[in-house]
Amino acid sequence: xxxxxxxxxxxxxxxxxxxxxxxxxxxxxxxxxxxxxxxxxxxxxxxxxxxxxxxxxxxxxxxxxxxxxxxxxxxxxxxxxxxxxxxxxxxxxxxxxxxxxxxxxxxxxxxxxxxxxxxxxxxxxxxxxxxxxxxxxxxxxxxxxxxxxxxxxxxxxxxxxxxxxxxxxxxxxxxxxxxxxxxxxxxxxxxxxxxxxxxxxxxxxxxxxxxxxxxxxxxxxxxxxxxxxxxxxxxxxxxxxxxxxxxxxxxxxxxxxxxxxxxxxxxxxxxxxxxxxxxxxxxxxxxxxxxxxxxxxxxxxxxxxxxxxxxxxxxxxxxxxxxxxxxxxxxxxxxxxxxxxxxxxxxxxxxxxxxxxxxxxxxxxxxxxxxxxxxxxxxxxxxxxxxxxxxxxxxxxxxxxxxxxxxxxxxxxxxxxx
Length: 418
Ligand SMILES: Nc1nc2c(c(=O)[nH]1)N[C@H]1C(S)=C(S)[C@@H](COP(=O)(O)O)O[C@H]1N2
Ligand SMILES: [Mo]
Description:
Layout: E1 10-12, E2 16-17, H1 19-25, H2 36-41, E3 70-73, E4 81-84, E5 102-104, E6 118-122, E7 128-130, H3 132-136, E8 141-148, H4 166-170, E9 173-182, H5 183-190, E10 198-203, E11 210-214, H6 215-221, E12 223-228, E13 231-232, E14 242-244, E15 257-263, E16 295-300, E17 311-320, E18 326-332, E19 340-341, E20 343-344, E21 354-362, E22 367-375, H7 384-388, E23 404-407, E24 413-416
Parallel strand pairs: 6-15
Antiparallel strand pairs: 1-2, 2-21, 3-4, 4-5, 6-7, 8-9, 9-12, 10-11, 10-15, 12-13, 12-14, 16-17, 17-21, 18-19, 18-22, 20-21, 22-23, 23-24
The chain binds the ligand Nc1nc2c(c(=O)[nH]1)N[C@H]1C(S)=C(S)[C@@H](COP(=O)(O)O)O[C@H]1N2 and molybdenum atom.
C-alpha cells in the first residue's frame, strides 16, 4: 500500500485521498495471504452438510452479537431512559428496527390494538375517533427519514471531552422508512374551525407525554405512523400508532398516540417548558426549538474501532438536517487545516440520514478527523464553540456541533474538542 503516494491523488492534507484512487486500490485492503485459487478450493464444514431449517422470523448471525443497543434507565426506574443505536457498527441510512434508538419517559405500554383508539377533538366541526385498522384504510405514504432526540449528543457540553463511543455520545438518532396517514387528511375530515391553530398531541403511556404542534407543521408533512421499515411499529417505537414529525425534535413525535386536541394556542405542557427548551445564558429560554439542526458524524473510524495498521481506510459517516436535504459533507483529517468533499450516495433524501464516505491513508501520525455538513437551505454545521455560545450552563438540548475524533499514534481513537 505504500510507495504509490503521489501528489495527484491527494484531496486534502494528512493523507485524505480522492475517491477515484480509493476505488482503484480499495481491494488492496483484502488479505493477500490466501490466493483466490486456494480460497475457491477451500470446503469449510458448512459446505458439507445441510444447514439449519426455516424460521418464522430472521435473526442476525451469531457472529454479530456485539452489534446491539446500549440501554440505560434512570436510577430507581426500569422504563425511564434510553437505548442507543450502535452507530459505529451500522452502514447505509436505515437503522434496523431492532436497533432503532428508544427514549421512554415511563416505560413501554403494552397496548392491545383492539382496545386502543385515537381521539381527534377540540376546535373541529366533527370530533372523530380511529382504531389502527381504521387508519390503515386511508391512503398511506412512506418516507425514509431520520428521528433524533433533542437530547442527543448532550454529553458534548461537558467542559472536558467525555471518553466514550460514538453510540454512547450520539446514538439517539436513527433512520427508518416510516409509513402512515398524512394527518392533514384526518384534520380535513374533522373540519378545523377558524379558531384552530395548534394541536395538542398526547400519548397513552403513564408519562402522559404531551406536546403542542402548530397546524402549519401538520399540513406540511406530519403523519400518524403505523409501519416502520415495512412492519407494524414495534412497541418501543409507539405501537400501534405514533405521531411522526419529519425533521423535528424527537420528543414532539408522540408515541402511543391517544389524543389530538385542536386548540387556539399551545398548551405549555411540562414536556415543552421545563424540558426540551433551550435556556440562554441571560436566563431567558427559547419558546420552542422544533427543527433539528444540520449535523454530521464520522461513525467509522471512531472510538472502539481503532486503527490496527497504517494504510488505507474508509471514513464513513452520517449527515442529516431537519430543514431538508444534505447538500455536501466535508471531511478533514488534520483537525480542520484542510478539507475535502466526501462522496454522498445517490441523491440525498430530505430529512433523512445521508451516508458519506471518504478515502484516507493513515501514515501513523496523530490525526484529528472532522466532518462538516451543509444542507440545501445553506445551513453549515457549527463548531462546538459556536454551539456553546450564549447557552446557559447545563443547557444541553439540540447540540449539533462538529465532532472531532483524535487518532493517536497507537491507532486508538478518542473524543476531543478542537
Ligand atoms: N408517549 C410518549 N411519546 C414519546 C416519548 C415518551 O416517553 N412517551 N418520548 C419522546 C422522545 S424524548 C423521543 S426522542 C422520541 C423517541 O422515539 P423512539 O423511542 O421511537 O426512538 O419519542 C418521543 N415520544
Ligand atoms: Mo428525546
